[in-house]
Every structure is written in structure tokens, then in C-alpha cells.
Amino acid sequence: MKLYYSATSPYSRKVRLLAMHHGLDVEIVMTNPLENDAAFLTINPLAKVPALVMDGRAIFDSPVIAEYLLKLAGADRSSDAYLKQLELQALLDGVTDAAVATVMEGRREDAEKSPMWLARWDSSIDRGLALLETEIAGLTDWNLASMAAACTLDYLCFRLPHIAWQAKYPKCAAWYGEVAKRADMIETDPRG
């Protein structure tokens, strides 16, 4: 299997952590989806990472790839606990979506930036983190939900440090502080 990957993509990182955790043999293929490389566009016409190629076919979007990897690993995907993991992954992917949109909007010329959208994404991030603050104590296992949380919180630290979410959400900050010390988190850190 080949995982088309960008080191700065929190979605790619989540999938890579999942593969590593379950000991799945995945070849990492570094790519920049913003370059619109013709070969990569045949793998994922949406020009987004991650994308997983296996057995002559490609699957993309991190939740779909995660489901496939968990199936390969023989993980229990039928329990209420797994449903909770999926719910938290959806929440955290939404927070990450808002964060990525904020980063991309920040790269536009000042006259082109949308204060309305920036405020909306900021509110989405804040509300998502507020909910995560109430759920973070339940993230005691290293699983899909905790990996999504770790990748989202790290992306906020990496790309949007001015948000300073740690003071407002101390439970999340304490949890992240411990998780960030994990060897697999250090190995996949986009800052090198």
C-alpha cells in the first residue's frame, strides 16, 4: 500500500498514526497536493491528501482510509465505543477543516480576506474545542479519536499559534502536552 502524504496535513498524519499503531505496512509517498501534479490527480481528482493506493485502486479522504485500515487491522468497528470514536473524529475533522480554511484565507491578500468567514471559522474552532474539553478525559486509549484530537491540537499549535487555546481549554492542553511526547507523534511532527 502507498499512502500519498504531506507532512503538514493533519489528515495525512492521523491516517499515518493509525497505520503505525496497527503495524500496517504502508509506503509513504510525499506529495504536495497544491501542485496539481497530473499523476497525483489520477489518484485523487480532488487534489487532496491523504490518498491510499492498494491493489490497483485508490481511496481518499481520511475517514474512509481510516475505516479501511481498521478493517485490515481487524479492529472492532461495531461497538458503541467505536461509534463514539467516529463522532469525535467528525468533530475534530470539522475543527481541522475550519483551521485549514483559516490558514488558507490568511494567505490571501488583505483586501481579499473575508472577515465574516474568518470569524465563522474561529467560532467553529472555539465551539469544537469547548466540546472536546468535556470529552478529553475519556480519551485514554490511543485510537482513532485520540489520534484525531492529537493531530487537530497539534495543527492549531503549528499553524494558528495566536489562537492560544491552551489557556481557555486546560484539560485539552494537559492531555495534548502528554500525547505530544509519544514517539509516533514526534516521528510524524511536521516541524521536523
Describe this structure in words.
This protein has 192 residues and is an alpha+beta fold. The chain contains nine helices and four strands, in the order βαβαββααααααα. A four-stranded mixed beta sheet has the order 2-1-3-4, with helices on one face. The longest helix is centred in the middle third of the chain and has 27 residues, at 80-106. It is globular, with a radius of gyration of 17 Å. The chain starts with a strand and ends in a 5-residue tail after the last helix. The mean pLDDT is 97.
Q: Characteristics of this structure?
A:
about 190 residues, alpha+beta, 4-stranded mixed sheet, 9 helices, 4 strands, about 60% helix, about 10% strand
- Count every beta strand, where a strand is a DSSP E run of 2 or more residues: 4
* Shape label: globular
SS class: alpha+beta
Catalogue the unreliable spans.
none
- What is the straight-line distance between the termini? 24 Å
Question: What percent of residues adopt helix (DSSP H or I)?
Answer: 55-70%
